[in-house]
């Protein structure tokens, strides 16, 4: 089953069981992100991703440039292992990893979760590609894909047992919008896909086809 269909089924199930008042809070949050123009302000095709340090699940600090070995590197910025939509997306990239590798393309998953949580995300999704911690979301802030939770959303996250202060080891209550960046060996951005709505994601099979065609159908 394609990722989009899985996500659609999960979204419908969530809406069915969730009170309308909570749905409205999350919809308002998504609309606020759109109105703030985050997508328009984020780094674009042709710009360069900063070479900032990330932390592996083994606790080692690595620069992004040290991980760029293939022709293309997919940077999948996800919200966290607590997010079921993110987990579905990570598993779909894992399913297609060999296909991407055949096109000399590697994959990285990046979140602001503490290493302990990142390690759990890696294990529970049976991943073989690296996922890393962007401490305090420094790289994501430089790229421009971070927003701060509004008060109502923050309260609902806590009600759902999602304590971002513990998960991120800070009190900023910041999250990335789901984003996929593809960079070349010069860390130049050759493809961007940003979603303000966390329940919607780029179909990895579509990205696979774009890379097969040398990203001739790029979009921002």
Summed up, what is this model?
By secondary structure, the chain is of the alpha/beta class. It has eleven helices and nine strands.
What is the topological layout?
Blueprint: H1 3-17, H2 20-35, H3 38-41, E1 53-55, E2 61-63, H4 64-67, E3 72-77, H5 84-95, H6 97-102, E4 105-111, H7 115-124, E5 131-133, H8 138-143, E6 146-148, H9 151-159, H10 164-168, E7 174-176, E8 179-183, E9 189-194, H11 204-212
Parallel strand pairs: 3-4, 4-5
Antiparallel strand pairs: 1-2, 3-8, 6-7, 8-9
What report would you give on this structure?
By secondary structure, this protein is an alpha/beta fold. It has one domain: Glutaredoxin. Helix content is 44%, strand content 18%. It has a 5-stranded mixed sheet. It has a two-stranded antiparallel sheet with strand order 1-2. A two-stranded antiparallel ribbon has the order 6-7. A hairpin with a 5-residue loop joins strand 1 (53-55) and strand 2. It is globular and about 45 Å long. Mean pLDDT is 94; it is low at 216-220.
Helix content: 40-55%
Tally of individual helices = 11
CATH class: Alpha Beta
**Based on CA inertia axes, which overall geometry fits?**
globular
Strand order of the largest sheet: 5-4-3-8-9
CATH topology: Glutaredoxin
Taking Cα atoms only, what radius of gyration do you get, to the nearest Å? 17 Å
Name the assembly state. Answer: single chain
SSE run: HHHEEHEHHEHEHEHHEEEH
Write the CATH architecture name: 3-Layer(aba) Sandwich
**Main pleated sheet:** 5 strands, mixed
Which class best fits the helix and strand makeup? alpha/beta
* Unreliable sequence segments: 216-220
Number of strands: 9
For the residues shown, what is the average pLDDT? Answer: 94
Our count of domains comes out at 1
Percent of residues in beta strands: 15-25%
Span from first to last CA? 26 Å
CATH superfamily: Glutaredoxin
